[in-house]
Amino acid sequence: MNLIDLREFEFERDKIILFNENEFIFGDTKCEEGICKRYFYKYNMKNKHIYKINEEGIETSEYASYNSCILNDYIYTDSYKVQNSHVETLIYRISLIDGKIDKLYSISRDAGVIILSEEYALLIGCDYGIDEEHSDVQKDIKGEYDYAILCDLKYKREYGVKDKRVILGIWDYFIPYTVDRVRCIVFEEAYMEDWELEDEFEEGSKKEDFYRNGYRESINIISLEKFVESIKNGYEMIPFSQIHKTELTAWTRYFGMDDGNIYYRTKDFINKIEYIYSIDKRTLEKKLLKSVNMHNSQTTDIWHDITNRKIYEKKIINDSIKQIKEIYDGDFIFEYSELKEEFNDLVGEYVLTSFWTEDDNGDNYKYFTKIRNIKSGMIDIFEGICIVIKDNIVLFKG
After folding, report:
1. I need a surface site. Which of 67, 166, 178, 361 has the fewest CB within 10 A?
2. Cα dihedral 164, 170, 173, 176 sign
């Protein structure tokens, strides 16, 4: 376990967008004279030095979420601004060499951004407004105000997406990746949380009871070239390779990827078995890896660790002990008595939990990370929040 403590630099916890054995890159938002600006930093693992990548900050709203990725020698990121009721979503490119910032695109909409490649981005959002005169609640429930737009960053063109699965079904994962120099996309089609769909099944809901095809879930793969071509040609059904599909009696969810494979999980609501599959990135051949008995899943708290492909069962025993049990590989079980502490992660022989405190008035909020060595019993407590990547724990200011 390698502990990297960045709390002294006053960074708020943010996304780490690149991590290797030599360095990692992350973002941070600072408020300067009432204007929020985002900066990116590089941390050198050997000399423990932090380098600011862009000296000029990217203006953004204070609590705006964003996505970032690194392609070749550039960080691609988006920003969201509101000024005098005018909304704008922007896409930028920052050079890792000299920190130069290029504004690639802007649109007068509040949209989520998925960077697909150096040339393309997908925007998703909803035009529904809280205005009884111009908005219809029933249309909103059915997703008629939702949209998806393919943006050509090079030629500054927009193409409307007609496939309702993309417009409505991007719940968590629409992930670009490269295999043998070919850019591809894996798409998890889902419309609600997995437990919500299972609850609907247990309550006896029928297909006709769902809006937005919420009873249906699937895992799909396509090359970026074919995806772009289909949208430009106005296809209402993009020709994804549908790897797995379930309807009402099961869910289908993305479960991570590595260099050679993509993983997904399904659960049969009738027999209460969860199945873990792999998909070969090159051949798209799928293989059943394991089945896990989930008969207790509705009476315990289940956490799927996508990064490490672990499944944790969390439950309280006799109102006094919190038990954490890994049920995919079955290689870990841990119990502790501090019921208010949340289990965060397992790094080798170290268990990470977190808790918070406040005064009697609900003020002076503080967040803490606790690291336990399972073998020695030693405990370290740090005020702050952590991000775990492989066997590295990065501490940020809370």
Report:
1. 361
2. positive
Domain residue ranges of the chain, discontinuous segments joined by +: 1-115, 162-298
Stated as kind and residue range, the H or E segment containing 232 is: helix 224-232
- Residues 6 or more apart from 259 whose CB is under 8 A from it? none
Q: How far apart are CA 323 and CA 123, in angstroms?
A: 41
> Would you state the structure tokens that stand for residue 48, as one six-digit string?
């423990």
Token pair in block for residue 25: 């890159």
> Smallest Cα–Cα separation from 345: which of 382, 303, 317?
303
What pLDDT score does 10 carry?
A: 79
What was the pLDDT predicted at 296?
Answer: 72
pLDDT of residue 169: 95
Instruction: Enter the tokens of residue 355.
Output: 């808790």
Spatial distance between the Cα atoms of 228 and 230, rounded to a whole number of angstroms: 5
Between CA 258 and CA 353 the distance in angstroms is 26
Question: pTM here?
Answer: 0.91
DSSP assignment letter at 36: E
pLDDT at 133: 63
Residue 299: band (very low, low, confident or very high) from pLDDT cuts 50, 70, 90:
low
Helix (H) or strand (E) holding 295: none
| Among the ranges given (59-68, 198-207, 244-253), the one the predictor scored with the smallest mean pLDDT | 59-68
CA distances to 89, 118, 210, 378 from 104, in Å = 11, 10, 39, 50
Residues 6+ apart with CB under 8 A from 346: 310, 326, 332, 352
Confidence band for 346, pLDDT divided at 50, 70 and 90: very high
Q: What distance in Å separates the CA atoms of residue 79 and residue 112, rounded to the nearest whole number?
A: 10
Nearest one of 239, 231, 241, 289 to 261, comparing CA atoms: 289
Burial class, 376, CB count within 10 angstroms (exposed 0-12 / middle 13-18 / buried 19+):
exposed
Residue 319: left if φ>0, alpha if ψ -120 to 50, beta else—which one? left
Among 271, 314, 323, 263, smallest CA distance to 294 is for 271
Work out the average pLDDT over 222-228: 98
More reliable by pLDDT, 211 or 303 = 303
Q: How many CB atoms lie within 10 A of CB 345?
A: 19
The span from the CA of 5 to the CA of 264, in Å, is 34
CA pair distance 263, 60, nearest whole angstrom: 35
Q: How many residues does the chain have?
A: 398
